[in-house]
Amino acid sequence: MAVHRGWFQAPARVLALLAAMVAGLFGLALVSAASAQPSPVQHIVVLYLENHSFDSLLGYWCDDHPGRCPDGGMPASVTLSNGAVVTPSVSPDIVPNVSHTVQSQQAAIDGGKMNGWQKVPGCAAKTGYACISGYTPAQAPNLASLADSFAISDHTFSMADSPSWGGHLYAAMGSLDGFEGNNPKAAPGVTPGPGWGCDSDKITQWVPRGGAVQWVPSCIPDFSLGLQNGGAFEPTPVSYAPTVLDRLDSAGLSWRIYGEPKPETGGKVSEGYIWDICPSFAECLDTGQKANNVASASFVHDARAGHLPSFAIVTPGGKDAAFSEHNGFSVAAGDDWLGQVASAVMHGPEWRSTVLFITWDDCGCFYDQVPPGVNPDGTPQGPRSPLLIVSPWARPGFTDTTATTFAGILSFTEQTFGLAPLGPNDARAYPFANAFNFHQAPLRPARIVYRKWPRDAYHVNMAEAREDT
Predict the structure, then answer these.
(1) Element spanning 400, H or E
(2) What values do phi and psi take at 41, rounded to 5?
(3) What tens digit of pLDDT does each residue of 87-133 get?
(4) Residue 62 and residue 450: Cα distance in Å, rounded?
(5) How many angstroms separate the CA atoms of 343 and 386, rounded?
(6) Does the bond joining 365 to the residue before it have cis omega, within 30 degrees of 0?
(7) For position 304, what pLDDT does the model report?
């Protein structure tokens, strides 16, 4: 099974050993591993945007490409658990203000029936069922162009019913380490700091195995650092968990988190600091790993200059925070930024050795029709996320229908670079093996467009982004 799922990323020594074993058992003259096609991938980039389900961004695109979407496109009507029949609408450019807490997502999923959307705050009848809507290809032309030209996954689910804080945890460690995932809140009697991580002095829900919910610091501690409380602002029962960044460090491979590394700029809280992955891990925030946390605005230059690390996660920070596609933000602006990031990769000197995954951290929480599954560690998955695989080695016009989660990206990374898995979720995740063909002629860049934004796109609602909805 492991060979079928990830043979093309396996180190040559593993393939050689396997070939020798099979030859010895069956007396077959096998092609040596040295002559097998090695993976050309040396750079893995993840563009991690905000708050959309698969149907929200690709439902109407699927209507135009029925052969690419086995589960269908945006349905003609949606029947809700209260009996209401709703016709999905076209979303406005400014993403509607819809709740996406753990509880809202659970209500929408409704035990897998996917019919509880009217229970989501901001999606009742009086709002015209704002969350039962989606964007047309004309509203997000760069997304559509990349989906046309490269590969998509139509069965990548978010790893949990969690909004952004939890979504950014599992992007690094493949689990929530016991956290429910809800965005942190101020602790009673404690003046909060910036962001949501270890330096925020905020708290969120955590559930010990078999125990009751507790409110604890929103921090993955590291008690080996010698810091008080392992880097949290008060004692915490949460345990240390390794990240893919640790695995890369151990292998001597480069990585960067492109986001917003500074909590404050000009005396004000920096935009996008809440989405930066590093501060939620004491090991990243309080050690030399912090040097690899850089501004998202530097990514395009690095890609164009041929300075990509082995692994990178790009989250919108600083001036790029306006392009996150979060509730209250413009999809037109976000699609232009998505196009800039993809264009820098496609036209950079490292294009032929790069895979760019483009995905979104949670549902937003906007309508999706496919029930999520369960992770290998027994925790429930959240709604489908859009996922594009942009690479010269991606199968053109291909849809990968094998179910996976963000842990599939971690698994692909681990298999590409020969890294040990972090836990059961990434160890057993499907790594998009069917979406690649390393024997094909390398694909050329897709067409990217830049448009004049709607006037409302210049209104950026950072207050909405910092709320707990």
Answers:
(1) strand 398-400
(2) -75, 125
(3) 999 999 999 999 999 999 999 999 999 999 999 999 999 999 999 99
(4) 23
(5) 19
(6) yes
(7) 98
Contact (Cβ atoms closer than 8 angstroms) between residue 241 and residue 222 = no
Residue with tokens 């396996």: 10
The model carries a pTM of 0.91
**E-only strand ranges, 88-227:** 89-90, 133-134, 151-153, 156-157, 185-186, 202-206, 214-217
Is the CB of residue 429 less than 8 Å from the CB of residue 408? yes
AA letter at 292: N
The DSSP result for 289-348, as a single string, is GGGGEEEGGGHHHHHHHT---SEEEE---GGGGGGS--TTSBHHHHHHHHHHHHHHHHTS
Structure tokens at 264: 């404050």
> What is the distance in angstroms between the CA of the first residue and the CA of the last residue of the chain?
41
pLDDT in tens, 214-241: 999 999 999 999 999 999 999 999 999 9
Domains observed in the chain: 1-38 (no CATH), 42-466 (3.40.720.10)
What does the block give as tokens for 37?
A: 């096609």
The candidate with the shortest Cα–Cα distance to 469, out of 96, 116, 195, is 96
Per residue in 189-212, pLDDT tens? 999 999 999 999 999 999 998 899
- Strands in 160-274 per DSSP E: 185-186, 202-206, 214-217, 255-259, 264-265, 268-269
Whether 459 has a pLDDT exceeding 70, the answer reads: no
